[in-house]
Amino acid sequence: MSAVVPLTSSRHGRKYWRRYTDYRFAARETLVPLVLAELRTAVLSLPVAFVPRGETFALAAVLGFVPGRNLLVAPQGNWLAGYVPASFRCHPFKLAENQGRMVLCVDEESELLNEEGQGEALFTPEGEMSSVLREVMEFFQVIGGSHPATVRACALLQEHGLIVPWPAQVQLTGGATVLEGLFQVDHEALGRVSPEVLKTLLDSGALWLAHCQLLSRQHLPALAQLARKLDELGARGGKPAPLPEKNGELDLSFMKDDGLLDFGNL
Out of 98, 106, 125, 252, which residue is the most buried by the measure of CB atoms under 10 Å away? Predict the structure, then answer.
């Protein structure tokens, strides 16, 4: 259940925030929005695609192949990739559009919010943002500041016919599956653009975005391999089984051979 509303002192002045200790809150998210500011690191670990948003496209990381199943959240709640998308790093706070502008919001249904003094206060008794909430705001200001540039870069790629369907095929437990609803950069069309268009794409960051998206496609096979392994581990009784451990830590050595995902930060 989610009830995301703008954060205000009048409505949330008595609220406290307990920081999350795992990523189970993201276990059902198969796509998560990205912005240019985080793309440099995100593409080292995550497949990135364009997804339709009305008549335009948005940038998103692909986290799973089945609705409601985020492959990068382990049964224990661990995050299984080298990069955690910005949208997850300040849960239950979110940056959302409200009346035409981006504002800091909060999920009022989150179990991490309370009025019993557990955790850190969101506002001071005078109604000012607490120091911890200011840190959250500063983080999202960086992300929000990159949002317009991301929207423009996606729009330019679309305007010049460089975003096309991505009928990616992955090997899952039940056999080969063709993904639907994802879009990618047309690398052949990108190689044919005029010098004038190329300069426009370069100046806007759209060219860099295009190359990052093409590079990130290499992570899909690793994500599919992880899906198969999790299915294998959960086959007994039809219930998810814990991932194997080694010396008290998750043993993900089965994923390290191809080097596509970075598990160094577990």
Answer: 106
